[in-house]
């Protein structure tokens, strides 16, 4: 009987220690009189020279500086540690502490995040930034609480463009019979369906190979993702539409965050505010730079539209709104539209 009790205590202690380590909140080990730093693992899927990659590195630099080295941030770019789906599981389990998925990829936790994929919802990046300040977006961020996650900030990437390798996409008819890679969710499937095309969800880290092998004929992404993922090697045609956004929610494991000493959390909060300003500036610069790179590279044929040509696409894709208004919520759509008014 006593033996069993002793065993139960040992097992219990082991579980507590293991869980503590899992969330990275174990007491720092004593390291020759110096406390070992708190390790913050930040995992993401784009390259280190993308806006997200550079801003994650900026956060690292600021966080380490502001905590006088009490925190060490380890940044893992390019799906090195985890791909799209795995990083969401890993941050909940506390195996990484911070991730920065594109908003769409949170659809499994809250389908309302698919607002970001409604075709032509935001006319400008300023409208997007304004929407991020609304109560509706704050509610969206808070909706992650029940998954033991906290939304810390929003970082931009840019507007999406279509690419394909079979033919230039000049009218909606050109989409018929082609298959496109999507990030996640049903709104994007519906968008391609409205254009007469098929779609398949493929992890970002596997998209180049899927395009190369012809598993899909095309995809949609920002200039910078197209450029840094080298899709120009496997896609011949790019159509400039700016029909949707890729932006990120910076998410932290809540248990880990809440257990940090208050001064550390405050310093990390400040680092995140500064890194976010940098992210906005980087997204702007790199969007332009990548567009120029792609044009100069000469591997992709660009199609650019007149307002009238673009309006044809807007009309064709409009049906997605009525299909998803009840899923996404009229309040969110209205707030986005209001933010889009000059
Ligand atoms: C994608 O999957 O295309 C993007 O969300 C990747 C990213 O993180 O920008």
Indicate the topology:
Blueprint: H1 2-22, E1 30-31, E2 34-35, E3 38-43, H2 51-66, E4 71-76, H3 84-93, E5 98-99, H4 125-132, H5 135-142, E6 149-159, E7 161-164, E8 179-182, H6 186-194, E9 198-201, H7 204-212, E10 218-221, H8 223-228, E11 237-240, E12 245-253, H9 254-259, H10 262-297, E13 301-304, H11 307-317, H12 319-328, H13 330-340
Parallel strand pairs: 3-4, 3-5, 8-9, 8-10, 11-13
Antiparallel strand pairs: 1-2, 5-12, 6-12, 7-10, 7-11
Helix pairs in contact: 2-10, 4-13, 6-12
Bound molecules: (2S)-2-hydroxybutanedioic acid.
(2S)-2-hydroxybutanedioic acid (LMR) binds next to loops.
Describe what this molecule looks like in 3D:
- The longest helix has 36 residues, at 262-297.
- The chain has helices at 2-22, 51-66, 84-93, 125-132, 135-142, 186-194, 204-212, 223-228, 254-259, 262-297, 307-317, 319-328, 330-340, and strands spanning 30-31, 34-35, 38-43, 71-76, 98-99, 149-159, 161-164, 179-182, 198-201, 218-221, 237-240, 245-253, 301-304.
- Helix 2 (51-66) packs antiparallel against helix 10 and helix 6 packs antiparallel against helix 12 (319-328).
- It has 13 helices and 13 strands.
- By secondary structure, the protein is of the alpha/beta class.
- The chain has a single domain (35-341), classed as D-Maltodextrin-Binding Protein, domain 2 (3-Layer(aba) Sandwich), CATH 3.40.190.
């Amino acid at each position: 009987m006593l033996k069993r009790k002793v065993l139960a205590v040992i097992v219990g202690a082991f579980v507590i220690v293991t869980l503590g380590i899992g969330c990275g909140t174990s007491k720092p080990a004593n390291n020759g009189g110096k406390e070992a730093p708190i390790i913050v693992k930040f995992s993401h899927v784009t390259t280190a020279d993308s806006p997200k990659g550079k801003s994650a590195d900026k956060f690292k630099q600021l966080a380490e500086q502001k905590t006088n080295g009490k925190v060490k941030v380890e940044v893992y770019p390019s799906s090195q540690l985890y791909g799209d789906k795995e990083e969401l599981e890993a941050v909940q389990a506390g195996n990484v502490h911070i991730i920065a998925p594109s908003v769409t990829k949170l659809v499994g936790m809250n389908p309302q995040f698919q607002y970001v994929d409604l075709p032509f919802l935001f006319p400008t990046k300023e409208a997007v930034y304004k929407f991020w300040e609304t109560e509706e977006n704050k509610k969206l961020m808070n909706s992650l609480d029940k998954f033991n996650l906290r939304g810390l900030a929003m970082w931009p990437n840019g507007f999406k463009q279509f690419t394909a390798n079979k033919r230039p996409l000049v009218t909606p008819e050109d989409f018929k019979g082609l298959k496109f890679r999507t990030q996640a969710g049903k709104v994007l499937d519906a968008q391609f369906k409205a254009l007469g095309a098929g779609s398949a969800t493929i992890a970002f880290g596997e998209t180049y190979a899927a395009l190369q092998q012809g598993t899909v004929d095309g995809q949609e992404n920002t200039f910078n993702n197209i450029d840094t993922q080298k899709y120009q090697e496997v896609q011949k045609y790019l159509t400039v539409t700016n029909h949707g956004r890729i932006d990120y929610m910076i998410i932290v494991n809540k248990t880990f965050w809440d257990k940090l000493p208050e001064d550390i959390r405050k310093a990390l909060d400040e680092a995140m505010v500064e890194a976010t300003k940098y992210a906005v500036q980087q997204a702007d610069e790199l969007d332009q730079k990548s567009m120029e790179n792609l044009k100069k590279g000469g591997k992709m044929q660009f199609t650019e539209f007149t307002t009238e040509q673009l309006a044809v696409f807007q009309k064709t894709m409009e049906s997605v709104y009525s299909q998803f208004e009840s899923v996404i919520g009229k309040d969110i759509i209205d707030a986005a539209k209001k933010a889009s008014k000059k």
